[in-house]
Amino acid sequence: MDTIKSYVESVFVQLPRTPEMYQLKEDMLTNMEDKYLQLKSEGQSENEAIGTVLSEFGNIDEIIEEYNLEKESEEVDKDSVFLSEAEVEDFMQHRTKFGLGIATGVVLCILAPAVMLSFNELANLFSFNSPANMEGINLLSIIPLFILIAIAVGIFIIFGLKEEQYNLDKKVVILDPTTRVHLDREMQEFKPSFAKAIAAGVILCILAPISLLLAIVLLGDDNAWSVIFLLGFVSVGVFLFVFYGILYSTYEKLLSLGDYQPEKIIASKLTDTIAGVIFPLATAVYLLLGFIYNAWGTAWIIFPITGILFAAFSSLYQSLIKTKRRK
After folding, report:
1. Computed from CA positions of residues 119, 120, 125, 129, in that sequence, does the dihedral angle turn out positive or negative?
2. Fewer CB in a 10 Å sphere around the end CB: N or C, the chain?
3. 0.90 surpassed by pTM
C-alpha cells in the first residue's frame, strides 16, 4: 500500500498544484487502493496486486491528455528527475560499490591507530623496545597509520566524485510503474538482511567494551591490546552500519520514502541554507559572550536553543509545503 501512495505522490509532483489536482490525486489514490484490496481478496500476492494496479491506473500521460494539462517543466527540472529501469539498475550497482568503498574507508580510519598500536606491541613482544630502538619504532609505527588514512581519503574522494556524477542530490526520483514494483520487491527482500546486519553491528559494538575489559583482566593494563581489540570490534560493527545503511537509503531515495519524500527534499533546500548561516552565527555569539563577559559556562545554552528552534522551523516548513502541494 505504501508503494501505491509513494507512486501517486511522485506522479502528481509533476502536475499543477491546484484544488482540482489535489482532488484528482485523492480520487486516483482511492481507486488504486480499492483495486489493490479487490485483487488481494481474489488471491493475488502483494507484488502482483501492486503491479496490476500501477499498470491500470499509473499512466500519467493519460491524465495529462484527459485534463489538458502541461507538466510544470521548470519545477520538474528543478526538483524531480525521471530514471528508467536501466538507469535505476546502474545507480543501484554504483551505490553498492559506493557503500562498500565508504564503509571500507571508515574501517581503515578506525583501524589505523589499531595498526600503529599493534606495531608497537609486537616490538615490545619481541624485545625490540630498548631505549636505542624505541625512537625508531615509534617513528616507524606512524607510517602505517598515515598510509591507511591516505588510502581512506583517496577512497572517499574517488567515490564522492563518482556520486556527484549522478546529480540526484535533493531530487525527487520518478519511476515508471514496472520499475517501481520491481524495486519495491527488492527492498522488501533486502529488509531482513538489513535488520540482521544492524543487529550484528549493535552486538559487536556492545562486545567492544567487553573485549576491552577482558583484555585488561587477562593481559593487564600496561599494554595496548585492549584498545586494539576494542577498535577491531567497533570497525566491523561500523562497516555493517555504513554499508547496509547506504544500501537501505538508496532504496528509500529511489522510492521517495523516509527522508526522501518530496516535501522533505524541497524543504531541505531552504533549511540547509539557513543551517549554514544560523549555526555559525550561534557559534560566533557564544564566542563573543565568552570573551567579552566570560560566560563560557552559561552561554553554551545558545546551542540547544538554536537546535530546538531550527528543528521546529524545519518541521513547520515541511508541513507548509505538504499543505501547499495539496492545494
Report:
1. positive
2. C
3. no
Question: CA 302, CA 160: separation in Å to the nearest integer?
Answer: 34
Cell numbers for 103: 564503509
Distance CA 282, CA 103 (A): 33
> Distances in Å between the alpha carbon of 185 and those of 88, 89, 178, 251, 292?
14, 14, 11, 10, 60
3-class state of residue 80 by DSSP:
strand
State which amino acid sits at residue 85.
Answer: E
CA–CA gap between residue 305 and residue 151 (Å, rounded): 39
For 249-277, the DSSP string reads HHHHHHHT-GGGSHHHHHHHHHHHHHHHH
Residues 6 or more apart in contact with residue 212 via CB below 8 angstroms: 226, 227, 229, 230
Write out the H or E segment, with its range, that includes residue 136.
helix 131-166
**Each residue of 158-204: pLDDT tens digit?**
998 998 888 887 778 887 777 888 888 899 899 999 999 999 999 99
Report how far residue 136's alpha carbon sits from residue 261's, in angstroms, rounded to the nearest whole number.
56
- Which pairs from 163-168 meet CB under 8 Å and 24+ separation? 163/94, 163/98, 166/91, 166/94, 167/81, 168/81, 168/91, 168/253
The residues facing 82 across adjacent strands are 174
| pLDDT of res. 99 | 93
Q: Which amino acid is at 292?
A: I
| Contact in structure between 267 and 321 (CB atoms under 8 Å) | yes
Between the alpha carbon of residue 213 and those of residues 54, 115, 124, 177, the distances in Å are: 56, 20, 21, 54
pLDDT at 47 over 60: yes
